[in-house]
Amino acid sequence: MQRDDLYREIRSDVEQINELVASLLECSKGRDTLRPAARNIIHTVERAIRITGGRQEFRRITIKHHHKGRALGWFDPNRLERVVVNLVLNACEAVDPGSGQIVITTIGNRDYLQIAVWDNGPGIPSTIQDSVFQPFVSYGKAAGNGLGLAIAKKIVEDHGGTIRLEEKNETGTLFKVIIPFAIPRQ
Q1: Which residues contact 114 (CB under 8 A, 6 or more apart)?
Q2: CA–CA separation, 102 vs 120, rounded Å?
Q3: Global confidence as pTM
Q4: Ranges assigned E (strand) in 52-100
Q5: Which residues of 33-49 are buried (b: 16+ CB within 10 A; e: fewer)?
Q6: Distance (Å, rounded) from C-alpha 52 to C-alpha 55?
Q7: Which range, 33-37, 73-77, 122-126, 159-163, is most confident?
Q8: Is 40 helix (H, G, I), strand (E, B) or coil?
Q9: What are 89-106's pLDDT values in tens digits?
C-alpha cells in the first residue's frame, strides 16, 4: 500500500513537471492555444485539489472547496486546472504543514467565474506584492522558481480574465481570478 502511494505521488509529480515544461515551451513560442469547451468548474477544481493534496508533504493541510452558482461554463479545463494547481501549491508551501488551511471558493453566473484561493499562511511581503506575477519572482521557497504565478497570469489573460492579489486581506493570502464564463451562442 505504501509503495502504491509512493508510485502515485511520483507519477503525479512527473505529470506536473511535464505539464509545466509543455506550458513553458508553448508560452515561449507564443502558441499556447486554448482549447475551450463546455466544462464543469467543480470537476476542474476537484482534480487540482487531488493533484496537490495527494503529495506526501501536504497531506495534513486542510484544503476545502466551496461553490456557489453556475458550475458549467466555457473554458479550457486543463489550463484552468493549472491555474488552480499553481495557486494551491503556492498556498501549501506557505502554510504550516501541520495546521495549514486553504479555502478555494468558486462563484459562477451567466457572465463570469470567480475563483478565490485563500490560505492562512504568513502572507506576501509588501515589498514584492507588485511583482508577484513577474517571471522568476519567488519568496520564502527554497525550491521556488518563480514561474507558477506568471504562468497562471498568462493562462487567465488568455481566457480574457484577470488575476490579482488581494492586498487588504486581514490574514494569510488571497488570490482572485475572474474569467468570462458564458458559453458562446454559436
Answers
A1: 105, 106, 107, 108, 176, 177, 178
A2: 7
A3: 0.81
A4: 62-69, 72-75
A5: eeebeebebeebbbebb
A6: 6
A7: 159-163
A8: strand
A9: 999 988 999 899 999 999
